[in-house]
Amino acid sequence: MFSPRAVVVATLVVAAGGVAQAADPALPHLERRGAATQLVVDGKPFLVLGGELHNTAASSAEYMAAVWPVLNAKMHLNTVLAGIGWNWIEPAEGQYDFSLVDAALKNARSNNLRIVWLWFGSWKNGLSSFAPAWVKAGQQRFPRVAIRGGKTIEVLSPLSETNREADARAFAAFLRHVREVDQSHTAIMVQVENEVGVLGDSRDRSAAANAAFAQPVPKPLMDYLQKHKDDLLPEFRQVWQAAGFKTAGSWEEVFGQGAKADEVFMAWNYSRYIDRVAEAGKKEYALPMYVNAWIVQPADKGPGDYPSGGPQDHMHDIWRAGAPNLDLLSPDIYLPGFVELTARYSRSGNTLFVPESFDGTRGAANAFYAIGQQRAIGYSPFGFEAPRGELGEPRSAPPPNAEKLPLSEAYDVLSQLAPLILEHQANGTIAAVQLDRQHPDQQIRLGDYTLNVGLTRNVRTPNVAPDLAGYGLFMATGTDEYVLAGNNLQVTFTPATPGPPIAGIALQEAGRFEKGQWVATRLLGGDDSVLRYDISTVADLNQSGSGVRLSTGERGIQRVHLYRYR
Ligand code: DGJ
Predict the structure, then answer these.
(1) Per-residue pLDDT for 2 more than 50?
(2) Cα–Cα dist 22/13, whole Å
(3) Does residue 357 have its Cβ closer than 6 Å to ligand 1?
(4) Strand order from edge to edge, sheet including 29-33
(5) In terms of domains, do 388 and 436 share one?
(6) Structural domain count, the chain
(7) Is 495 inside a domain boundary?
(8) Could you tell me if 513 and 471 are in contact, meaning their C-beta atoms sit under 8 angstroms apart?
(9) 394 pLDDT exceeds 90?
(10) What CATH number has the domain bearing residue 533?
(11) Domain assignment present for 193
(12) Are 331 and 303 spatial neighbours (Cβ–Cβ below 8 Å)?
């Protein structure tokens, strides 16, 4: 009943730029499978249950010695996101040292983990902190961004071909090495740079940047915008429209005066630069590649408060035009509003991957939602191996009671469900919610029923929303049958097709999946299923009063079979 069904497999991969590229099916790659784009590793779809290490963790064998054994065995991660600094691998120009790369591969392999590399090349959080000393100290040769007032900052200028080619050479050498030593595909994807964009001003005002800004908008960008005019994201289209939809002219003529034009100019230059770095890397080893965005924060007044020119969602059209070698444009989400933010990064065919966000209960809810509702290829909290204290300082690594952490328990459930989730992402028969006191209920149409999902209520006060955070994902696994997983939720069912109007529960089991097969551990009923006793009220609502109550632990995964009556 739960064996994965064959899904229609397309062999072309669509990059963020909308350009179809032939994928080497032997390598990890992104593939359109039915209703979802999925990461395929060793011939099978793969769900990234990830965690991003603190920035420099992978440079310390001593620190990682205690961390590696815990990640999969206790925390149920299948993938670690590990930073690799340009300065670590090319300490002297043209002389490469890949010992940290080799150590990460070896340790990941022996601890049953895959790796997503984070290439800290020219930029990390906007700044050029991981550029090698010979680049930093060679300012004449490797030009910097200048900001208003003429000061240069510790940020390599994306307008410089020398900067770009030096980064591309190192990145290509790095991936050539990975290709040579990683035949078992431990590394499955690469983030190119980290949260790029100019901080402290809306654009680079170096001499080269000023000269480029005085030139007309490049023809390839204009051509792209005209070709995709009807499909542009509304907030960007509005910028172009406000300036009169001009098809040629200076940056300010085409995109308006001031910060808006500056931001588009920087997005074009960052995307072209990073596309070249990605292209050089893919020539050596064509792993899927993405960039991550430092998203706009509520206090930001404009570009420069957040990194100007980064892949924020309102700049996606420019990034698509400028960087066809990037496969995904990903958000780092440390704000409330995960539902809305992930929707914004799932537009225009962008496949969602969340490389940085929260751990804890919030992280568990986010992972379920991103994977279940937005069909994300994966989720990854930041700095999970040493959760931070109140001042943001990393605490002990690995965390005590690692196996009992909310995210570890959530990943345990998601890893059991992964084959089924991937099948139902492709079939479009999966949904998920995140609920809280402000949004205590949600209805979802899935299969032949509407699922009435709510925060778990007290059986005697069914109309009072409790102060809980609830999350869950649901799959329509057969006729009248669902698999549900989550925490702090209750679910009732309403038939959505012609026939008897009331749904009752024929069979309800709690259990787990072992190697993709359902193993029932408990037959549920009685107090497990009765959600309310005001039976005449619920009868008037065409409800039975019974349903599913999800909570972590033994009742965290349930399978129900429904029947209908009148
Ligand atoms: C976002 C960055 O991408 C990470 O590398 C790290 O610096 C975190 N911020 C810190 O919260």
Answers:
(1) no
(2) 6
(3) no
(4) 29-33, 36-41, 44-46
(5) no
(6) 2
(7) yes
(8) no
(9) no
(10) 2.60.220.20
(11) yes
(12) no
Q: How many CA atoms lie within 13 A of 369 on its CB side?
A: 22
Q: Which of 52, 55, 191, 291 to mutate to test the pocket of ligand 1 (most atoms within 8 A of CB)?
A: 55
H helices present in 73-218, as ranges: 86-89, 99-110, 133-136, 161-181, 207-214
The radius of gyration of the chain from alpha carbons, rounded to an integer in Å, stands at: 25
Whether 20 shows a pLDDT value over 60: the answer reads no
**Separation between Cα atoms, residue 352 and residue 342, nearest integer Å:** 7
Q: What residues have CB less than 8 Å from 210, skipping those under 6 apart?
A: none
Q: Whose CA is nearest to atom 2 of ligand 1?
A: 125
pLDDT in tens, 50-92: 999 999 999 999 999 999 999 999 999 999 999 999 999 999 9
Domain's final residue, options 427, 456, 477: 427
Share of the chain above pLDDT 90, in %: 92
User: Which tens digits make up the pLDDT trace of 308-352?
Assistant: 999 999 999 999 999 999 999 999 999 999 999 999 999 999 999
Query: Measured from the CB, is residue 52 less than 6 Å from ligand 1?
Result: no
Domain range spanning residue 248?
8-427
Report the residue among 124, 295, 332, 388 best suited for mutation to probe ligand 1: largest number of ligand atoms under 8 A from its CB. 332
On whether both 178 and 300 belong to a single domain, the answer is yes
Sort strands 449-455 and 489-495 into parallel, antiparallel or unpaired: antiparallel
**Atom 10 in ligand 1: which residue has the minimum CA distance?**
382
Residue at a domain's end among 405, 427, 449 = 427
Among 275, 277, 311, 274, residue whose Cα is nearest residue 294? 311
What does the angle CA 272 – CA 267 – CA 53 come to, to the nearest 5 degrees?
85
**Which region among 20-34, 290-304, 360-374, 406-420 has the lowest average model confidence (pLDDT)?**
20-34
Q: Is the pLDDT of residue 4 over 90?
A: no
pTM of the model: 0.95
Q: Does 201 lie in the same domain as 116?
A: yes
Element (H, E) at 343: helix 338-344
Give the largest Cα separation in the chain, rounded: 81
Residue nearest ligand 1's atom 8 by CA: 382
Which residues sit opposite 120 in a β-bridge?
Answer: 85
* pLDDT above 60: residue 13: no
